Amino acid sequence: MKTFQQPVKFFEEQGFVSPSESYFVPFDNVVNTKKQNMETMVNLGRYFTIFAPRQSGKTTFFYDFCRSLENDPLYIIILMSFQTYHSISAERFYARVDETIKKQLINRLLSVQCSDVKAVKQYMDTNPVSDHLSFYQLFENLNNIINKKKIVIFIDEFEGMPPSEIFNFLMTLRDLYQNYKQVKDKALYSVGLVGIRNMSQLVVDGISPFNIADQVTLPPFNLNNIHDLYAQFTQETNQPFKEDAIQKIHEQTQGQPWLVNRIGTILTTQIRPNTIEPISIDDVNQAVTILVDEHNDHFDNLLEKILLYKKTFLNICNNHVAYVKYDESQAWLMRHGIIKRMNNKVIVSNPIYKTVFSSLTSDQKAMEMIPKKIFICYSHEDKHWIEKLAFYLKQLQHQGISFWYDERIRAGDIWPLEIQTAIETSHLIICLISDSFLASDFIRTKEIPAIQQRQKEGITVFPILLEDCMWQVINWLQDIQIFSHMMPLDSLNEKDLKKQFMGLNKDIMDCFENKRKDQITIHRGKRT
Predict the structure, then answer these.
(1) At residue 369, does pLDDT exceed 70?
(2) End of a domain among 217, 239, 274?
(3) How far apart are CA 194 and CA 135, in angstroms?
(4) Alpha carbon distance 54, 57 (integer Å)
């Protein structure tokens, strides 16, 4: 008679899945827009982007794919992650890139007993990567050093690189692809960028630096994937899952990997632990109830994203909403896996998310713990004003309120990522109105449309009049009350200016307090 056996592996809920430690299934049907799978794309020397929400298994997927190429001595796989590089200097960034490439390249050449390893090491020792130009030169010269080897680079968390280098780095990859597209024997053969954004759609200063890439979307688990994942647990422990239970899990999760693994944990450690009694559909229903009522980082992180676009989310929960290609609020919620497109409609990604978030259930303490951020929109000609404003805004940090402006980046340099993300994730926006502000093409064509999109979600905008200017001719500004009662700041003495900035701080705190009160009255779909 079979008895329960303690499992060695577990259902992974913290990110990367190691098949030696956790239950693991490969994704099915991971293809580009031409229906080519990953192996085909690499063999063809394609560059591609893999984009999917966090905790959806993308890092696990490409690590698994890299393992599948290890036995072929033709391929040299280099894995990099830019997750922690965002705040480092460009110099330090390229030093880390050089170090990573050199270490993995040399080790791989040694392991496959490549005769070119000494020449490669000598070149890299004397020509370290120090900027995007030397990065290009590295692979240009490796073309002449390495014979019949194909380097494949995968970069995880690509958005985490220093913002000032995103354009340069992408353009360098583009040049390497374009200039050697027709060359069969080339060192840098294929490149994959992994992140939550589609880098092939990135536009900087009217240029798409990586639109040469294939687009690869990671699908959720299908029913067979879920069945195979739980079968591994059964094989270890002798505890089976009934077929209708697995179907119920698929129905409730729609294959979202973190949800599938979390329910597996709840079922096997809380509902039916240490037994060979089969897990039933009733057990699954109980596990779902436990899951939707618990506090966890996964739900908390998604709630923070949803609250930024609450109106759009609730509309999708309660109504039939059409998919709109260029709707930034829909794009934001899709990017984080909260909603998905179904034909020409958008719906919540799975029933569990809808249950958890449709009423935005969160206690007052959780709401207060969400950090608040202010985005400051201004012209660089008014830099002296933002320095004065920043002095007073720093006092709000004691209340958990931060502020962001582009003090370390060049205007327009990285709009699609850094500034867009700042606007998308802010809870209040300050605009410093002046002649320079009104004359800025960048502000008019990039920042204001994004700000207007956030206004549709209810974000508060504080326009501050720096000087007498023709702000009344701007329709957008006519509908917003100018802070300081339309008195230009440059007309005030230092004492009155201090009062205005102190008044601004108070209004900001009042604004956040009023929004918090409004949010916490929403509980389980009813106004209290």
Answers:
(1) no
(2) 217
(3) 19
(4) 7
pTM of the model: 0.87
How confident is residue 206, by pLDDT bands cut at 50, 70 and 90?
A: low
pLDDT class for 306, splitting at 50, 70, 90? very high
**Are 65 and 124 in the same domain?**
yes
- Give me the count of residues in the chain: 528
Q: Are 377 and 385 in contact (CB under 8 A)?
A: no
Please report whether residue 129 resides in a domain: yes
Taking phi over 0 as left and psi of -120 to 50 as alpha, with beta for the rest, 45 belongs to left
pLDDT, tens digit, 9 for 90 and up, residues 161-183: 888 888 899 999 999 999 998 88
Is 239:233 a contact under the CB 8 Å cutoff? yes
Is 24 among the domain residues? Answer: no
Number of structural domains found in the chain:
4
Kindly state the greatest CA–CA separation across the chain.
90
With vertex at residue 145, the alpha carbon angle to CA 139 and CA 151, rounded to the nearest 5 degrees, is: 50
What does the pLDDT average to over 458-470? Answer: 90
The tokens describing 392, both together, are: 């007073």
Are residues 246 and 327 both part of a single domain? no
Domain membership of residue 12 (yes or no) is no
CA distance 352 to 259: 9
DSSP letter (8 states) at residue 31: B
CA atoms within 13 A on the CB side of 252: 25
355 and 384 part of one domain: no
% helix, strand, coil for the chain, step of 5: 50, 15, 35
Cα–Cα distance measured from residue 209 to residue 132, given in angstroms and rounded to the nearest whole number: 14
